[in-house]
Amino acid sequence: MGFRQLLATAFALNVPPAAILILLAASDQITWGLAVVCALAAYAGVIGILRIYFKDLRSVARYASTLRDHFRGTPPQHLSFDAAAELSSLYTQITAAFRERILTLEAQTSTDAEILDHLPNPVVMVNRQRTVTGFNQAAKSLFHNLETGHDLTRYIRDPILLDAFDMVSSGRRTLQHTEFVVASDAQRHFDVLTAHLPAETGNRNFVLSFSDLTELRKVEQMRADFAADAGHELRTPLSVLLGFIETLEGPAKDDPDALGQFLPVMRDQAQRMQSLVEDLLSLARIELNEHTPPSNDCDVATIIDKVAAGLRVKADAKNMNIRVTSTLDQTATIGEEKELVQVFQNLIENAIKYGHQDSTVDVKISLVKNPPAALARYRHSRIMAVSVCDQSDGIAREHLPRLTERFYRVDTARSRAVGGTGLGLAIVKHLVQRHRGTMIIDSEVGKGSVFTVYLPAQTADNVHKLYRA
Ligand code: ADP
User: Of 115, 350, 370, 417, whose CB is crowded by the most CB atoms within 10 A?
Assistant: First the structure.
């Protein structure tokens, strides 16, 4: 308040006492001189009080403006009027309450941003003008150079997804799902949910949330390929069989020579189909319980001896020898005997099928000091290795990583000629995985191959370590 206003206020406040003094002087109760002196004294007194009052108010106003600018400040000290002190204290309390609210909001905003950044799904926020107004880290990795302030079409050009956005932004839909493919190094498939956000989210009116479908699509593709491969594998022996049946029903109807000639081939083809169906069923069964570890006790050396004895006839047919050696006294493990028989049967039978005439199949059981990386978590347990080594043409390096894929063969004709289904190693891989083990294949062209199965060995102390992992 200016000085003139101060004088005017003091004057206004002095009007009633001045009127009383004039009345007293006019009725000769006091002299006019005394009345003037009293009026001047009252005027000076009011001015003095008002100055102190306004000084207090100015201090409070200054304090209020520092609070407005910095949200903190030192409240004025030694205020003369209680009302001014109360006002100052109210400002302090209001500011403290606001500060607390702001801190909570800031914490919440940064937590929301952090939560958003930790989401594995890319999320992009867009306003009504289709401008990108926010995104999380996953979105930044998906769309290179993603920045706010640009039109969405700078990053997404897919017309179907943009149509979906238009549907939602025009209010025709509240949300819309669209499949979207990002063609970077490898194709990635996403299900994109475009949704309208509540009005309180400011300039973030719409959200596009991307769920990765790549693995799902891969599995679907693998299933389709597998069904096609299985169908193809079954069709060949089936058409051979049908061909022979037609011949026997037609031109060779009464020809006992043709019958004698065709029947062994028909039996071979039927057996091939039988093996294939058995392997397919086996694989389906194994995949069903692959994630349930076995719980029975069994002994690896005993199993291998049994398998080797069973394959002796096949080995003799090629004048081959199966030699089993072990550097372990104890070869017990937790496992399903039938499944481990299937594992070693497949490996030793392959060694015989693909091994050279008159050669030896060496089966070695040993303990491993440095387990392969896949079994790193069992490094404190005993790991047993069973290697099946053959003397054969070997396998070129580029085929090794694909050998355990279903129906993958290095030489399809040769595999079929020796009665292979192309599923044996896929079955072995799944069975070994169920036993918490792993298989490593090594081969040298012109020398032979080594298929090594690593299995955690059962001992009193590693059993529960093994099954807790
Ligand atoms: P198959 O029934 O055809 O033998 P597998 O799944 O057992 O199917 O093996 C896949 C392919 O791996 C075989 O077709 C063959 O090309 C190759 N293979 C497997 N074992 C051996 C081995 N001991 N020596 C050479 N090649 C092998």
Answer: 350
The Cα–Cα gap between 275 and 93 comes to: 85
Residue nearest atom 11 of ligand 1, based on CA coordinates? 409
> Any residues with CB less than 8 A from the CB of 193 and at least 6 apart, and which?
175, 176, 177, 207, 208, 209, 211
352: tokens are 């015989």
How would you classify the pairing of strands 206-212 and 438-444? unpaired
Ligand 1 centroid, distance to 397 Cα (angstroms)? 14
Q: How far is the CA of 257 from the centre of ligand 1 (A)?
A: 36
What are the mean pLDDT values of the chain's consecutive 10-residue runs (469 residues total)? 78 88 91 91 90 91 90 88 91 91 86 88 93 94 92 94 93 92 83 87 84 93 91 92 93 88 92 93 90 90 97 97 94 93 97 97 93 79 93 96 94 86 95 94 97 82 48
449 touches ligand 1 (CB under 6 Å)? yes
The CA-atom distances, in angstroms, between 177 and each of 192, 193, 351 are 6, 5, 52
Cβ(395) – ligand 1 distance below 6 Å? yes
- Asked if the 216-292 domain carries CATH number 1.10.287.130, the reply is yes
Domain boundaries of the chain, sorted by first residue: 1-106, 108-212, 216-292, 293-468
| CATH for the stretch 108-212 | 3.30.450.20
CB 178 within 8 A of CB 168: no
**Distance from the Cα of residue 154 to its chain's centroid:** 27
Residue 440 Cβ inside 6 Å of ligand 1? The answer reads no
Measure the CA–CA gap between 455 and 3, rounded to whole angstroms.
98
Q: Is the CB of 420 under 6 A from ligand 1?
A: yes
Q: Is the CB of 454 under 6 A from ligand 1?
A: no
Q: Which fold has domain 293-468?
A: Heat Shock Protein 90 (3.30.565)
Please state, in angstroms and rounded to a whole number, the distance separating the CA atoms of residues 120 and 132: 19
Which residues share a beta bridge with 368? Answer: 383
What's the token pair of residue 436? 């918490």
